[in-house]
Amino acid sequence: MARRGENIYKRKDGRWEGRYIKGRQKSGKIRYGYIYGYKYSEVKQQLILMKYQNQASNNKNLLPYEGQLVDWTNYWLETFVRPKVKSSTYASYKNKMDVHVLSKIGSIKLQKLKQVDIDSLLKEMDKTLKASSIRSIISVLKNCLSKALSLNLLTENPCIGVELPKPKRKTVQALSIKDQAKLVKEINTSQKFFSIMLALQTGLRIGEICGLKWEDIDFENNTLFVNRTVLRIQTEDKSGRKTEIIEVTPKSNNSQRKIPIVESLKKQLLELQKVSTSDYVISNKHKALEPRTIAYRFQIIRKKIGLENFSFHSLRHTFATRCLEAGGNIATISSLLGHSSTKMTLDCYTNSFFTEERKLVEKLEFI
Fold first, then answer.
1. Domain interval for residue 187
2. Are 184 and 262 in contact (CB under 8 A)?
3. Residue 86's domain is classified under what CATH number?
4. What is the pLDDT of residues 276-334, one digit of tens each?
5. In a domain, 367, yes or no
6. pLDDT tens digits for range 46-84
7. What's the rounded Cα separation, in Å, for the pair 354 and 366?
8. Burial class (CB in 10 A: 0-12, 13-18, 19+), 87
9. 3-state DSSP call for residue 317?
10. Same domain, 40 and 164
11. Looking at residue 234, which CATH number applies to its domain?
12. What is the DSSP letter of 82?
C-alpha cells in the first residue's frame, strides 16, 4: 500500500518503488517513470528530485520544489558529495548537517527557507558551539544550498549575507622544557607510551602516528614518511548510526611529508621493531592502535605527573615550540608540521614568535 499522497509502494521483493509522471503519449495516456530502492527515504529523495526535473523539462514555468531541507540535503550528500570526497570528509559533512542543522530546521520546505531561519539557527548554535565550529557548519550548509541554487531549485542562497561569529585566536598549549623532561622520564618506563615520544620528537598528528608503518621509516637516512592517517568516523547501516575506524591519506598534500629523525629516536624505533609483530609501528597485536586509545594513555600519564589541561595535540605544539626555540625558521617548521601554508603556522604560534622577536630586539641594545 502506498504512503498517502507520495506514490511510494513496498514491493513483494522487499524494495520500495516510487512512481512519477514523465509525460503523456500522443494518445493522451500518461507515461510513468519508476524509482527503486531498499530504503524508503532514498526513494523519497530521488522521487522528489525526479518530479522536479521532469516538470522543469516539460514546463518553462518551473513548479515549486516540494521537498524539505532534509530531503534536498540528503540527496546532495549522496549525489554530489560522497562520490567526490574522502569517506572521512563525507562523514564530517553529514554529521554537521544531521546534528546541528537538520535537527533544527530540516523540516522547513527548501523553497521557504529564509535568512531569518539561518539567523535563528546561528543564535541557537552560539549558545553551545565555538565560533570556528559554527563557521564550519554554515560553510557546509552554504555549499549545500549553492548547489540547489545552481539547479534553479532556489532563487537565492539564504546563507549569503548572514553575520557569522568571529573566531577567537587559539592559545597554543605547549609543555615547558621542565614539564617535557618530566614527561619523557615517565614514558620511558614502558613501550606502550612510545606514541607520546613520537609526537614530541616528530610533531605527528595522533592519526598519523596510528597510521605509521615500518615501511614508512628509512633507517639508513634517518627519515620518516607520513603516508596515511587513521580516523574514527561516524557511519550508518541497517542497525543505525555507529562509528568505524578507517585508514586514509593525510588531510592535504602538504600533510604527506618526510620528517628527519634524531639518533636517539632511531635507536628507540629499532628496539621496538625487534619485538613488533605488526606492520604498524604503534599497534594492537597486528592492527593499528586507534587514536582514542593513544589519547587515553596520554591522559593517564598526564594526570600521574600533574600536568593540567593538556591534550595529546599539545605534544605537537610542544614539538613546534622547541623547533622555534632552537632557531628554526617559519617555512621549515610549517613544512615539518604539514601545514597548508606558513600563514597557518604563524597564526598558531604568534605568541611563541613574539617571544623570539623580543629576544632579537633586546640583542640590538648592545649594538
1. 177-362
2. no
3. 1.10.150.130
4. 999 999 998 888 899 999 999 999 999 999 988 899 999 999 999 898 888 888 889 88
5. no
6. 888 877 676 555 544 444 678 999 999 999 999 999 999
7. 20
8. middle
9. helix
10. no
11. 1.10.443.10
12. T
Alpha-carbon distance of 133 to 177, in angstroms, equals 32
**Quick one: 124 and 154 in the same domain?**
yes
325, 331, 336, 338: CA torsion to nearest 10? 130
3-state SS, residue 2: coil
Question: 3-state DSSP: the chain helix, strand, coil percent, rounded to 5?
Answer: 50, 15, 35
Contact residues for 170 (Cβ-Cβ < 8 A; gap 6+): 348
Buried b (16+ CB within 10 A) or exposed e, 262-273: eeebbebbeebe
List, in sequence order, every residue forming a beta bridge with 19; answer none if it has no partner: 34
Last residue of a domain, one of 63, 85, 106: 63
57 in any annotated domain: yes
Burial class (CB in 10 A: 0-12, 13-18, 19+), 294: buried
* Cα 20 to the center of its chain, rounded Å: 37
Extract the C-alpha cell encoding 33. Answer: 517513470
Residue 213 lies in a domain: yes
First vs last Cα of the chain: how many Å apart?
91
Q: What percent of the chain has pLDDT over 70?
A: 86
- Number of domains making up the chain: 3
Contact 264, 180 (CB under 8 A): no
pTM of this structure: 0.69
Domain annotation covers residue 266: yes
